[in-house]
Specification:
- The complex is a heterodimer.
- Chain A is of the alpha/beta class.
- Chain A is built from four helices and nine strands.
- In chain A, the strands form two sheets. Chain A has a five-stranded parallel sheet. A four-stranded mixed sheet of chain A has the order 1-2-9-8, covered by helices on one side.
- In chain A, a hairpin with a 2-residue loop joins strand 8 and strand 9.
- The model of chain A has no long low-confidence stretch (mean pLDDT 93).
- Chain B is built from five helices and eight strands, in the order βααβββαβαβββα.
- By secondary structure, chain B is of the alpha/beta class.
- In chain B, strand 3 and strand 4 form a beta hairpin.
- Classes of the chains: A alpha/beta, B alpha/beta.
C-alpha cells in the first residue's frame, strides 16, 4: 500500500495481519505515527493508537492501524480489539508479551522523504 | 549509583509511567552524556536546549526525540525520580553504563548487559552489583 502525506511517501509492503516493529529505539516509529495521525485528513483510512483508551477512535473502515508505545498502553481489551480487526496492524512493542507471540515481524526503513515498512 | 527496579512487586509507587508526557518542558543539556545519546542512539546533533538536528539534517524540537532517548535523558537529568524503562529498546542499554546516577523501573528485563566499565556499580532491586556477572546472577533470580 502506497500513499503520501504531504511530501512524505509511505510504502507499506505488508498484507493484513499483526506485525511488531522490533525491539530497537530510535528507528522512526513515533515519527511514522505522527505522519499517520494526519492520514484521515487526506482520505487515508488509517488510525494511530498511542494512549490508553484511544482504541475508541478506531473506525471500522480503517485499513492501517498503528499502535505506538504498546509496552505502555497495553491492556487485554486493546489486545482483544486488535485480534478482531482485519487490517494492517503495526505495533511498537519492544518486549515479549501475548501480542508479540501472535505477531509477525516488520521493519521500518526511514529515508528523508520516505517511510517504508517491510 | 544507578538504581534499577525489576518486577511489578518492586515497582516504586512514585514511578513515572508516561515518560513522553513527563518529557514536556525538558531542556537538553550541553554535556557529554546528552551529546553521546543524541549522536549514538539518534544519529543526531544537539543544536540548543530546545532543538536538535536529526540524521537527515533537519532541525527538530526535543519532543521529536525517540521515547528511548527521552527515558535516558530524563533519568539522567532527574536522578531523584524513578522512570519506567519499559519502552526502552535494547540499543539503549549500553548507555545505562554511562550513568552514575538515576533510577529506572522495568516490568521485565530481557536485555543483555554489556561488560561493566571499571568502577561502575549498579543497584538491582536493592543489591549492589559491581560486575556484569554479579548483575546477571541477580537478573536470573528475578
Amino acid at each position: 500500500m502506497k500513499f503520501s502525506i504531504n511530501s512524505i511517501e509511505i510504502d507499506i509492503r505488508k498484507d493484513n495481519g499483526i506485525y511488531t516493529l522490533g525491539g530497537m529505539s530510535s528507528t522512526g516509529k513515533s515519527y511514522f505515527a505522527s505522519l499517520l495521525k494526519s492520514a484521515r485528513v487526506f482520505g487515508i483510512k488509517a488510525c494511530v493508537i498511542d494512549s490508553v483508551g484511544q482504541e475508541d477512535t478506531l473506525q471500522d473502515s480503517d485499513e492501517i492501524i498503528f499502535v505506538d508505545r504498546y509496552d505502555f498502553i497495553k491492556s487485554q481489551s486493546l489486545l482483544d480489539m486488535l485480534l478482531t480487526r482485519d487490517a494492517i496492524i503495526l505495533v511498537d512493542c519492544k518486549h515479549d508479551c501475548e501480542l508479540s507471540k501472535l505477531a509477525k515481524n516488520a521493519r521500518i526503513i526511514l529515508e528523508k522523504d520516505k517511510v517504508t515498512i517491510v | 549509583m544507578l538504581r534499577i527496579y525489576i518486577g511489578a512487586e518492586n515497582k516504586p509507587v512514585d514511578c513515572v509511567d508516561d515518560v513522553n508526557l513527563a518529557f514536556n518542558g525538558v531542556k537538553l543539556k550541553d554535556d557529554s552524556f546528552t551529546k553521546d545519546v543524541l549522536r549514538d542512539l539518534e544519529q543526531a546533533e544537539l543544536i540548543d536546549a530546545y532543538t536538535f538536528k536529526d540524521q537527515f539534517n533537519r532541525g527538530l524540537y526535543v519532543n521529536c526525540l525517540s521515547t528511548g532517548c527521552k527515558i535516558l535523558l530524563e533519568s539522567y537529568y532527574y536522578p531523584n525520580r524513578v522512570y519506567s524503562g519499559n519502552e526502552m529498546g535494547y540499543n539503549c542499554i549500553s548507555f545505562l553504563l554511562k550513568m552514575t546516577d538515576g533510577q529506572l523501573y522495568f516490568e521485565q528485563f530481557n536485555y543483555k548487559l554489556p561488560v561493566f566499565p571499571m568502577g561502575f556499580e549498579i543497584m538491582i532491586n536493592g543489591i549492589v552489583c559491581q560486575s556484569k556477572f554479579e548483575a546477571e546472577e541477580i537478573l536470573d533470580e528475578v
